[in-house]
Amino acid sequence: MQITSIQQAKKDEEKVNVFLDGEFWSSFTKDDLVRFGLHKGLELSLQEADDLKKRSRLSKLKLQALRKYSGVLKSEKDIRTYLYKKELEKDELESVIEYLYSHNVVDDVRFAQVFTESKLRAKKYSINKIKAELKKKGISDKILREIDLLNDSNEEVESIKKYIQKNSMLPKEKLIQRLLMRGFQYSNIKPNLPK
Fold this sequence. Notes:
Layout: E1 3-8, E2 15-20, E3 23-29, H1 30-35, H2 46-69, H3 76-84, H4 90-102, H5 108-122, H6 127-136, H7 141-146, H8 153-166, H9 172-181, H10 186-189
Antiparallel strand pairs: 1-2, 2-3
Helix pairs in contact: 2-4, 5-6
Protein backbone atom coordinates (compact mmCIF):
# COMPACT_ATOMS: atom_id res chain seq x y z
CA MET A 1 0.00 0.00 0.00
CA GLN A 2 1.27 3.44 -0.92
CA ILE A 3 0.31 6.95 0.13
CA THR A 4 -0.93 8.45 -3.13
CA SER A 5 -2.23 11.79 -1.88
CA ILE A 6 -2.29 14.09 1.15
CA GLN A 7 -4.96 16.81 1.07
CA GLN A 8 -5.92 19.62 3.40
CA ALA A 9 -9.13 18.76 5.30
CA LYS A 10 -11.98 21.09 4.36
CA LYS A 11 -13.49 21.62 7.83
CA ASP A 12 -10.38 21.70 10.02
CA GLU A 13 -7.19 23.62 9.21
CA GLU A 14 -5.16 21.44 11.56
CA LYS A 15 -5.99 18.18 9.78
CA VAL A 16 -5.06 16.55 6.51
CA ASN A 17 -6.67 13.62 4.71
CA VAL A 18 -4.37 10.81 3.64
CA PHE A 19 -5.17 8.51 0.72
CA LEU A 20 -3.75 5.01 0.25
CA ASP A 21 -3.77 3.58 -3.26
CA GLY A 22 -6.10 6.37 -4.39
CA GLU A 23 -8.72 5.87 -1.65
CA PHE A 24 -9.29 7.82 1.55
CA TRP A 25 -7.54 6.05 4.40
CA SER A 26 -7.50 8.37 7.44
CA SER A 27 -7.14 11.93 8.65
CA PHE A 28 -4.16 13.12 10.67
CA THR A 29 -3.20 16.31 12.43
CA LYS A 30 -0.38 18.13 10.70
CA ASP A 31 1.81 17.46 13.74
CA ASP A 32 1.16 13.72 13.45
CA LEU A 33 1.88 13.83 9.74
CA VAL A 34 5.36 15.13 10.53
CA ARG A 35 5.84 13.00 13.68
CA PHE A 36 4.96 9.77 11.84
CA GLY A 37 6.98 10.75 8.76
CA LEU A 38 4.06 10.39 6.38
CA HIS A 39 4.59 11.65 2.83
CA LYS A 40 3.36 11.01 -0.69
CA GLY A 41 4.90 7.84 -2.10
CA LEU A 42 5.53 6.20 1.30
CA GLU A 43 4.97 2.44 1.20
CA LEU A 44 3.11 0.94 4.19
CA SER A 45 2.33 -2.60 5.17
CA LEU A 46 -1.15 -3.41 6.43
CA GLN A 47 0.26 -3.72 9.98
CA GLU A 48 2.02 -0.33 9.74
CA ALA A 49 -1.15 1.31 8.41
CA ASP A 50 -3.24 -0.10 11.29
CA ASP A 51 -0.63 0.96 13.85
CA LEU A 52 -0.45 4.50 12.45
CA LYS A 53 -4.24 4.78 12.44
CA LYS A 54 -4.37 3.75 16.14
CA ARG A 55 -1.61 6.18 17.07
CA SER A 56 -3.41 8.95 15.20
CA ARG A 57 -6.70 8.17 16.96
CA LEU A 58 -4.98 8.32 20.34
CA SER A 59 -3.31 11.61 19.44
CA LYS A 60 -6.68 13.08 18.39
CA LEU A 61 -8.31 11.88 21.63
CA LYS A 62 -5.57 13.52 23.68
CA LEU A 63 -6.06 16.82 21.86
CA GLN A 64 -9.86 16.62 22.19
CA ALA A 65 -9.59 15.98 25.92
CA LEU A 66 -7.02 18.76 26.31
CA ARG A 67 -9.26 21.24 24.46
CA LYS A 68 -12.35 20.13 26.36
CA TYR A 69 -10.79 20.38 29.82
CA SER A 70 -8.18 23.14 29.54
CA GLY A 71 -9.28 25.95 31.82
CA VAL A 72 -12.06 23.78 33.26
CA LEU A 73 -11.59 22.17 36.63
CA LYS A 74 -12.80 18.58 36.67
CA SER A 75 -11.83 15.65 38.82
CA GLU A 76 -10.01 12.69 37.32
CA LYS A 77 -13.15 10.61 37.82
CA ASP A 78 -15.26 13.11 35.82
CA ILE A 79 -12.74 13.00 32.97
CA ARG A 80 -12.56 9.21 33.06
CA THR A 81 -16.36 9.09 32.82
CA TYR A 82 -16.20 11.26 29.69
CA LEU A 83 -13.47 9.08 28.19
CA TYR A 84 -15.33 5.82 28.94
CA LYS A 85 -18.06 7.07 26.62
CA LYS A 86 -15.45 7.23 23.84
CA GLU A 87 -15.05 3.44 24.18
CA LEU A 88 -11.29 3.56 24.59
CA GLU A 89 -9.17 0.56 25.32
CA LYS A 90 -7.67 0.56 28.82
CA ASP A 91 -4.17 1.47 27.66
CA GLU A 92 -5.54 4.31 25.50
CA LEU A 93 -7.56 5.68 28.42
CA GLU A 94 -4.54 5.61 30.73
CA SER A 95 -2.41 7.28 28.06
CA VAL A 96 -4.92 10.14 27.69
CA ILE A 97 -5.15 10.58 31.49
CA GLU A 98 -1.35 10.61 31.76
CA TYR A 99 -1.20 13.19 28.95
CA LEU A 100 -3.71 15.41 30.78
CA TYR A 101 -1.70 15.09 34.02
CA SER A 102 1.46 16.11 32.15
CA HIS A 103 -0.33 19.26 30.93
CA ASN A 104 -1.63 20.03 34.46
CA VAL A 105 -5.24 19.62 33.34
CA VAL A 106 -5.99 16.89 35.86
CA ASP A 107 -5.21 17.91 39.43
CA ASP A 108 -7.57 16.49 42.04
CA VAL A 109 -6.00 18.48 44.89
CA ARG A 110 -6.49 21.80 43.09
CA PHE A 111 -9.99 20.72 41.99
CA ALA A 112 -10.95 19.83 45.57
CA GLN A 113 -9.59 23.13 46.92
CA VAL A 114 -11.43 25.27 44.37
CA PHE A 115 -14.64 23.25 44.72
CA THR A 116 -14.49 23.56 48.52
CA GLU A 117 -13.74 27.27 48.50
CA SER A 118 -16.60 28.01 46.10
CA LYS A 119 -19.11 26.00 48.15
CA LEU A 120 -17.97 27.57 51.41
CA ARG A 121 -18.12 31.03 49.85
CA ALA A 122 -21.70 30.38 48.74
CA LYS A 123 -22.43 29.34 52.34
CA LYS A 124 -25.06 26.88 51.21
CA TYR A 125 -23.26 23.65 52.01
CA SER A 126 -21.94 22.13 55.19
CA ILE A 127 -18.49 20.67 55.46
CA ASN A 128 -20.03 17.18 55.49
CA LYS A 129 -22.02 17.88 52.32
CA ILE A 130 -18.90 19.20 50.58
CA LYS A 131 -16.95 16.10 51.60
CA ALA A 132 -19.74 13.86 50.29
CA GLU A 133 -19.85 15.75 46.97
CA LEU A 134 -16.06 15.49 46.61
CA LYS A 135 -16.16 11.76 47.32
CA LYS A 136 -18.80 11.35 44.59
CA LYS A 137 -16.35 13.06 42.26
CA GLY A 138 -13.67 10.50 43.15
CA ILE A 139 -11.60 12.61 45.52
CA SER A 140 -9.66 10.38 47.92
CA ASP A 141 -9.71 10.59 51.71
CA LYS A 142 -6.01 11.48 51.59
CA ILE A 143 -6.76 14.59 49.50
CA LEU A 144 -9.69 15.48 51.75
CA ARG A 145 -7.33 15.44 54.74
CA GLU A 146 -4.92 17.75 52.87
CA ILE A 147 -7.56 20.43 52.45
CA ASP A 148 -7.43 22.37 55.68
CA LEU A 149 -10.61 24.36 54.91
CA LEU A 150 -12.65 21.26 55.57
CA ASN A 151 -11.66 21.35 59.20
CA ASP A 152 -12.93 24.88 59.83
CA SER A 153 -16.11 24.61 61.90
CA ASN A 154 -16.35 28.44 62.10
CA GLU A 155 -17.15 28.43 58.37
CA GLU A 156 -19.97 25.99 59.01
CA VAL A 157 -21.47 28.12 61.78
CA GLU A 158 -21.27 31.19 59.53
CA SER A 159 -23.04 29.27 56.76
CA ILE A 160 -25.81 28.24 59.17
CA LYS A 161 -26.26 31.81 60.40
CA LYS A 162 -26.41 33.16 56.87
CA TYR A 163 -28.97 30.55 55.81
CA ILE A 164 -31.16 31.20 58.86
CA GLN A 165 -31.00 34.96 58.31
CA LYS A 166 -31.88 34.58 54.63
CA ASN A 167 -34.80 32.25 55.40
CA SER A 168 -36.01 33.81 58.65
CA MET A 169 -39.67 33.60 57.60
CA LEU A 170 -39.60 29.79 57.64
CA PRO A 171 -40.81 27.90 60.72
CA LYS A 172 -38.06 26.48 62.95
CA GLU A 173 -38.83 22.90 61.94
CA LYS A 174 -38.43 23.74 58.25
CA LEU A 175 -35.16 25.54 58.90
CA ILE A 176 -33.81 22.57 60.82
CA GLN A 177 -34.96 20.13 58.14
CA ARG A 178 -33.41 22.13 55.28
CA LEU A 179 -30.14 22.66 57.13
CA LEU A 180 -29.90 18.97 57.97
CA MET A 181 -30.52 18.15 54.29
CA ARG A 182 -27.57 20.35 53.43
CA GLY A 183 -25.42 18.24 55.74
CA PHE A 184 -25.09 20.59 58.70
CA GLN A 185 -24.74 19.06 62.16
CA TYR A 186 -27.71 19.49 64.49
CA SER A 187 -25.32 20.42 67.29
CA ASN A 188 -24.24 23.44 65.19
CA ILE A 189 -27.78 24.29 64.04
CA LYS A 190 -29.54 24.34 67.42
CA PRO A 191 -27.57 27.19 69.09
CA ASN A 192 -28.09 29.43 66.03
CA LEU A 193 -31.85 29.07 65.72
CA PRO A 194 -33.99 32.13 66.48
CA LYS A 195 -35.56 32.07 69.93
